[in-house]
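We emphasize that the prediction below concerns an isolated chain of 353 residues; any contacts that depend on oligomerization or on bound cofactors are therefore not represented. The input was used exactly as deposited, without trimming of termini.
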Amino acid sequence: MTPQRHRRSSVPQWLLFLLLGPLCLFSLAGCDRESEAIVSIALHPTKANILYVATNDAVYKSRDGGQSWERFPSFSARRVTTVAIDPQLPATIYAGTMGDAVYKSPDGGQHWLPHNVGLKEHVSFVNQFVFHPALSEKIYTATTVGAYYTNDGGREWEERMNGMKEVHIVVSIAINRKDPTVLYAGTTGGIYRSDDGAISWKKINNGLIPEQELMASMALGVNVIELDPVNPDIVYAGATKGLFRTVNRGERWERIGQSVPDPFVSSILVHPTEPSIIYIGGPRGVWKSSDSGKTWQEMNQGLATLNVRALAMAPQNSQTIYVGTNGSGLYRSTDAGATWVPVPLKPASAQNQ
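Result of the prediction step, given as a token string:
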């Protein structure tokens, strides 16, 4: 497919709120402040003490489990929107930005270089990176002007939008780790599935939203997609209008989680070995289900702000979960979400004062 080099998309208000938080959406002065919105969390795959978070202003790294932090603000003058760790080469870090596309660090954040060939001219927001499970130099990214793919660690990107003609904004992307030719893309026009490594896409909106309502408003933003790690035919999708589940690869979706007070879902975690355990985050905090989404329990003890932007579970210990909020920073739970404690983004020098 020939890349569309000059396509432009207006970014909807809900997506700006999701990515930048209330201060930057409603106040230019707020965007000049050091943000307390945690927009992305990346945990080292094998070293529990190493983690990265992205605020709107910078990428932060901790080597001691969040006791102290190093700040990397200089690789972009733009807003930071997402951060990801290469799962096979975890010293390699990717950062997505608003207006300046992709930056890559080969040395744990010490140096950053743009990796934008095929991207930079027409990308507004980089929303998410997803790595091929066996070949991590193969990366898919969701952006506000479409889905893109690289097979060389970001040196060159190509557009992968065949079958998504009516959609410009791709908000989220997910890959079947047992069969990486299968991917899902969440967009402002619902959900698409690819069965050929993103060469082509098929719309799979059955049960998500009536077609006439979708076409009238383009209002179904799919913020996050997560696959059941044991049975990847089961997929969860968090949208502006609720939480959805499919048991047949998206051929039919059902709405779940109606007992959660706010339908907006910004983040989802599925337990890696007990997939009936699910966490979701949104404007009313963190909610947990232990029965595949049938019933839900509020898990907000200790959170000063309930507007949750990001969730991450420690690869080595499922009892340890991190939450990024849109107003009071980062929190950690060591008891599977029962209680939360703040993790301030303090520089290492501040610890010695």
